[in-house]
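Lab notebook, design round three. We kept the backbone fixed and only want residue identities now. Task for the bench partner: fill in a sequence for the structure below.
Input structure tokens:
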């Protein structure tokens, strides 16, 4: 992560419009990346159901109670 920290220190020196330009260019590069380089839905499928039982209640019941408290 040293490289990332060094880059961020340089980014801090940029003017706001330059930071925005950099952000746009980074996003464009990420979007242009090959699909194998980006996470896919399949990558997240392995987490389905991992939290089952954590709340020890039905998810909808939990949400409804949470909304009532607000």
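Proposed sequence:
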């Amino acid at each position: 992560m040293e490289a990332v920290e060094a880059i961020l220190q340089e980014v801090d020196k940029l003017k706001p419009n330059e930071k925005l330009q950099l952000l746009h260019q980074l996003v464009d590069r990420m979007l242009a990346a090959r699909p194998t380089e980006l996470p896919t839905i399949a990558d997240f499928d392995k987490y389905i159901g991992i939290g089952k039982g954590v709340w020890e209640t039905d998810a909808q019941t939990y949400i409804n109670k949470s909304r009532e408290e607000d």
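Keep this in mind before ordering anything: Residues 48 and 61 are 19 Å apart (CA to CA).
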